[in-house]
Amino acid sequence: MMCYPAIDALVKKVDTKYTLVTLAALRARELTDGSPALLDDKGKKTVTVALEEIYHDKISYYENKK
């Protein structure tokens, strides 16, 4: 079974795999708590929706360097 979007494509959207996991987890929590999805989410799990939003540049992050 293929994973969409592919992990290789997702890692190119962020600086590290750790950032990808953290960003996806935070967004999935927002979706679980009732935040509206930015893409079609019918029948999809929240983590899948979060990863698709990252892939399609619907959500982003910034690095807070002190």
Descriptors:
66 residues; Eukaryotic RPB6 RNA polymerase subunit; 3 helices; mainly alpha; single chain
Architecture overview:
- Promotes RNA polymerase assembly. Latches the N- and C-terminal regions of the beta' subunit thereby facilitating its interaction with the beta and alpha subunits.
- Keywords: DNA-directed RNA polymerase, Nucleotidyltransferase, Transcription, Transferase.
- One of its GO terms (cellular component) is DNA-directed RNA polymerase complex.
- One of its GO terms (biological process) is DNA-templated transcription.
- The protein has 66 residues and is mainly α.
- It has one domain: Alpha-Beta Complex (Eukaryotic RPB6 RNA polymerase subunit).
- It has 3 helices and no strands.
- The radius of gyration is 12 Å and the shape is globular.
